[in-house]
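quick one: fe (ii) ion bound model?
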Amino acid sequence: MKPLYIFTEKEKQQIENIIKTNPYNPYTQYSEFKDYISHIIRNHPLPENLVEVCRIIVDDRIKNGNHVHVLKNCPIDLKLPNLDLNNPVQHKYKSKLTYIGEGFLELISQIQKTPLFSYKSRNNGDYFTDLVSFNKFKGKKTGFTDGDLIYHSDRSYHPVRADYVSLLGLQVTESELIYTTYMDVKELKKYLSKEAISMLEKEIFQTDVDDRSKENNSSWQSSATHAIFLKENLIRYQDTFTRPIDQDNIDAIKAILELKHAMSRSEKLRHMIKKGDLLIFGNQTGIHNREWIDVKNPEEGRKRWLLKTYSLDNEEKVQQYSKWATKQDPYCITDN
Ligand SMILES: [Fe+2]
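yep, here:
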């Protein structure tokens, strides 16, 4: 899709030079890393267009209900290790020794006042995680595998879900066409009957837990009972994972079938994330998927590495989710 803004080389360099001064490791000293970025915002002149573009994104969400934005030529780490896909998390800790991408994602979130949060059970509570093809998840039901991924909101089964997901392209083979597609709730509703919408607003559904999340908690099989359509045009849905609790509820099954028809007919926003692209999209204002449209060399496709963050749409949300937060860090969320 058309980018909202492409940073000039000069702006990219200017942002990178500022981020580089951060002496802290975001994986072992996140609190200090985050505070340093706050210090940068207060004390260093940032490129005007960076601040302006963040303002435009937030305004566009609130005033126009647009929840997908692309920025190009963003600062990222120039030297990246070839991640060992047998254990990419541990390998990254040891071998990725610069944090330009992490600094940029933190900077954007702080300027927008949309704080990052993490899950305690994922990557040791890291705020910056990697969307890569883990060898051990090949063929499994999780986003951390290769190939296509069904339409979903991230963590549909979890009581705490991101308002926005950011994906920053670190390593992408441009000849392998892998797309992320987004469909907005407002668009889906255009193709749904009033009866189906009202059925999907009822708390009569549940969502199964995906394979990667079961790794840390094998007894957690499914979400609590929930509605698919939430207030203010939000959605909680993972295709093939979300189903009526009562398998004999014909009206609920019909409503899901109608939703699937609406998914086929709705307008979609597609973007192929390239190196230096930042794609930010609403995680509850719509559903998204991943498609391997034309991948000639699957091994090259599997090397795709995106840096990912979850954010809340404002600081007040942190209070709302305090029940699930760890004692030490209100932005780090537990599973129960
Ligand atoms: Fe996702």
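The domain at 5-333 is CATH 3.60.130.10 (Double-stranded beta-helix).
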